[in-house]
Specification:
By secondary structure, this protein is α+β, with helices and mostly antiparallel strands. Helices cover 24% and strands 27% of the residues. The chain contains 4 helices and 9 strands; from the N terminus they run E-E-E-H-E-E-H-E-E-E-H-H-E. The two termini are 21 Å apart.
Amino acid sequence: NAAKAHQTGIRWSITKPVFSADGSTWVHTKEISYLNTFGLGSKLGLPSQFHFKSPIAAETLWVAYSYPYMSSDLAAFLKTIKNVNSVAISVLGKSEEGRDIVKIHITEPSPIDKKKQSIWVIGREHPGETPQSYLCEGMIKALLESAAGRKLRDAFDFTFVPMLNVDG
C-alpha cells in the first residue's frame, strides 16, 4: 500500500526509517528504494514498493518511521520544567485507554491588566508523528530560555499538548 499512503507515496523516496537493537540508540538506514508504479505499472496490477535495509544486525530489531518519542520521554521533559514559575502542567483529559493527555501552559503576568491572545500548539495527533513532540519540546525550551521567548511570553499565552495521541 506504499502508493496510497504517506501523501500519495511520493515522499517514500526521501523517507529513511530508524533502527535500534536496544530500544534506546537509533540509527537511520542508508539504503532505501521506492518503486513507484503509477501509470502503466498500476494498470498491470503491480504494487508500488518501499524497500529499506537495516544498518545494524541483531536478534531483536526495532524499526520506526522516525526517532521515537515515548511517554517516558515526555515524563522526563516535564520533570525539567515543572518548577518553572511561568509553567503550569495539567491534564487536558483522558485518552480512550485512560491515559492522561498532558497540557503545558506557559504565560507571564501582563504588566497591564489586559487579556493576552492564546496560542495553542498540538503535537502527535497520530502515532507516527513523533517529530511534533520533539518540536513542542524545543519550542517550550526556546520560550523559557531565550530573550525572544520572554518577549513572546509577555505578549501571548501558550498552551502545548506535546502528545495528543497518548495511546498510539
